[in-house]
Every structure is written in structure tokens, then in C-alpha cells.
Amino acid sequence: MEAPSGPGSRRRVPWNRLLLAASFFTFWTPPTTAQLTIETVPPLAAEGSSVLLLAHNMTENPLGYAWYTGERVENSQLIASYRIATNVTTKGPAHSGRQTLYPNGTLLIQNVNQKDTGSYTLLITKDDLQKERQTGHLHVHRLLQQPSIQVSDPMDRDKENKVVITCNTNETDITIKWICNGQYIKTTKNIFLSEDGKKLTIDPIKEENAGKYQCEIFNIGTSNKSGIFELKAKKSGRLHQREARWLEVTAGRISVRRPLQ
């Protein structure tokens, strides 16, 4: 097994950590002249997270900055402007209350949503009153709905000494991974996955297969995990029928057929 990596369930980068990254770029100047570029940090943003638009290779000693939505520099699309000499920030018509323009030209957007997807243009006023501008792009990914897992009938598991766990989700264009005791599962001689990854089969059940199981779904920008199912097995490999149980998970949705009492 390997430890889960990549984006987590609704994982978000705190905006103060993003600001620290922005501060680093403020004091780092490339040794050679290069074209102004815009970097989106993080490059893949999930709904509800915070995003920084960082400007690289800016001209020295600028007079001020202004950020606009879209690719045009129009007053109606102004988010905010900043004048260095007076240390004054002015909000524009496109300011939603979630944007912050810092003195180094970095734009912070908090609690992003899919409507924030699009282009953003930075306009820099140089000390010779010439203008320089560059456009960056932001794409916000919709959060995945939490999947649920369903387990084969406990009576059948005890009789056949195998278990089938299904990851139920209506999401499309996703990757599904299975986790046991916090580690991603790899197929073995007795652990099988369906072609679409939705069904995990353990046949036969062995003592080392006991543990807490859940599925995790991924798309390009976000991920989400199901609730947890705990599987217990006797040393002989037989399932503890009455000890196979669901752990109550606050956000989990659970589906199981109980053994007869």
C-alpha cells in the first residue's frame, strides 16, 4: 500500500501561506530582463479556496498597478488599483469584496467559485508613464459530491468468505482509488478491482485484509472521500459476521444490509 497523495477532500491552501509565497517573489528579481508573466497559485483551484495571481518580471520602480476582469482594460471591469506614492488602494466596479490587492502587485481572491473562472489582466504604470499589461487565467473546479460505499450482504460474506465493496457516485470524468487503514490499496492475488474502479472484491478474506476501507474520487482539481467501513476477520480468514460494522462518519453516507439477529 502507499500513502494517499495529491489533492485531498476539499483541501484548501490557507491564504496566509499563499501570501508568504507572494512575499518571496516580491524580493526575488531575475538577473536578466524578461517578459511580464502572470502565475496562478495554486494552478488548480477548487471552489471555496483562495487563489493568488502573481506577477513575475515586473518593471522596476512602477508608479502603480491595476487589476481587471477579462482581457480588456475598461473602467467597468476594474477590480482594484494601487498607487505606490500614496499607498492608496481604490476598489473598482468589479470588486466583489473577496479580492485584496497587495503593494507588490499580487491579487488575492478568497472563497473562489466557478463564476470566478476566466481571464484577469494586470496593468502596470511605469515611472515614465508608459503602460505594461499582461493577462492571466483562473479556472475554478466544482467540488465533487461525497461518494458512498455499499457492501455485500453480511450473510453472504460469512458463507462465501468474500466481500464486494462498491463505490457509489454520480460524478463523471473521475478516477477512483481505494484506501485501507489510510493507505492506497494495490491489487493482489485476493484483491480485485472492476474495470471502472467502482467495485473492490476481496476473495478470499484473509486476516491481513481486516481494516477500515473507503473510496476516494478525483478529478483534475478536487477530490472527496466516502465514509469508512471496518472489516474484521478471524485468524482462520472467516469474517466476524456480527463484528462487521459501519463507523459513524459525520459527513459519511452509509448503506449496509445487517445480519439477522
Automatic annotation (TrEMBL):
Keywords: Glycoprotein, Immunoglobulin domain, Signal
Entry's Gene Ontology cellular component terms: cell surface; plasma membrane
Ranges for domain Ig-like: 147-232
Listed GO biological process terms: regulation of immune system process; signal transduction
GO molecular function terms attached to this record: protein tyrosine kinase binding
Pfam families registered for this protein in UniProt: Ig_3 (PF13927), V-set (PF07686)
Annotated signal sequence range: 1-34
SUPFAM superfamilies xrefs: Immunoglobulin
CDD domains: IgV_CEACAM_D1 (cd05774)
Family: Belongs to the immunoglobulin superfamily. CEA family.
Name of the protein described by the UniProt record: Ig-like domain-containing protein
Organism: Muntiacus muntjak (Barking deer)
